[in-house]
User: Fold this.
Amino acid sequence: MAELRTPYFRVEEAKLLHNLEILKKVQEEAGCKILLAQKAFSMFACYPLLRRYLAGSAASGLYEARLGKEHFGGETHVFSPAYRADEFEELLAYADHFVFNSPAQLDKYAAKAKATGKQVGLRLNPQCSTQEGHAIYDPCAPGSRLGTTLENFRPDQLPLLDGLHFHTLCEQDADDLETTVEALEAQFGPYLKEMKWLNLGGGHHITRPGYQTGRLIALVRRLKETYGVEVYLEPGEAVVLNAGVLVTSVLETIHNGMDIAILDTSAACHMPDVLEMPYRPPLRGSGQPGEKEYTYRLGGPTCLAGDVIGDYSFDTPLREGDRLIFEDMALYTMVKTNTFNGMPLPAIVWRDRDGSDTVVRSFGYKDFKTRLS
Assistant:
C-alpha cells in the first residue's frame, strides 16, 4: 500500500479472527451470549464476519440500532441515558432489547416496548468503583448519571422487567467484574431470580494476553445456575483489540528544545482518546523517550497547540516521508474521528488473511463540506 495516501486505518482479518475465536470459546464454555458494542467499532463491512461468531450488537441510540439491525443481524440491544420521544417509534423497528436508565424512563416507554414484543431491562448502578486513573469512564463515580441506584430502584416496576443491566468496567479483568457482581448481588440479589437475563455490560478485556478467561467463565456459570438467567456480555474493545493500525507519514521535523516531528495525522482529529483519556498509543518500532538514540515529540498538523500524540524514541533520525504505524487503532478511533481544521478523514483499509489490502472507504472535501451546510 505504499502508494496509498496517508493517514489511513487498516483493520486486519487475521488479528480480528484471533479475537473472535477467543470470544467464541467464552460463549461456548460459559453458556453466555456476546454482543458487539458498536460504540467502539462500527465498521459494518466487517459485520458479516463478526456475525459468524457473536450473537448480535449493542447500540447507544437510533443510528447504531439501525446499523446493527440492517447490517449485523442477530439480536439488537439498545441503551440510552434518556430516549427521545420523537425517535422511539422508529427504534421499535430496529431493537429487540431496550435497556432504560431510570424508573422514570421505564414508566414512560416500557409499556410501549412490551406491547410490540420487545424485551425490557433497567440499567443498575451498584455504586462500586473499580477504576484506576480513568474517572471519565467510571459509571459508578459520585454523581454519575448512568444507572439506577438501590435508593432509586422501585420494586413495584418488576412486572415491567425482563432483565437487568450494568456496565462499570473499562479495560479490566475478571477480578474487577467479580467485585462488581458481589456488590450487585448484595444490593439487588433478591430481584435477580425474577429476571430472564442479566447483561454484564462491556469493558471486559477478554482478548488481552493474560486475561483471566477461566475466572470469567466460572462467574458466568455461577450466575446462570444461581439465578436461572441468560447472561450477556457486550464488549467493544475486546472484539477488535490489536486488530487495527493507523498509518501516518512525517511531514517535517523541527527543533525547539527537543526534536519534533509533525505528522499528517492528528491526535485531536483521528485519535481523540489520546487527549481525552489521556494515553500514549503504541508505535511500532519505537521506544520510550531516551530509550533509543533519537527522541522526538510527535504532533499533528492542526492549529491546536496541544495536538500532541506523545514522545517516542527511534534507532535512526526521522525524515520527511517516513511512515509510522500506530498500533491498536481499530477501537474508539474511526468512530470518533472529526474534521476540525478541515483535516481530511483517514481512509479505511481491510487486510485479508492472505495479506491483500483493499480500500473500503476513502474520504474527501465533500465529507468535510457537507457536515455543516
Notes: The mean pLDDT is 97.
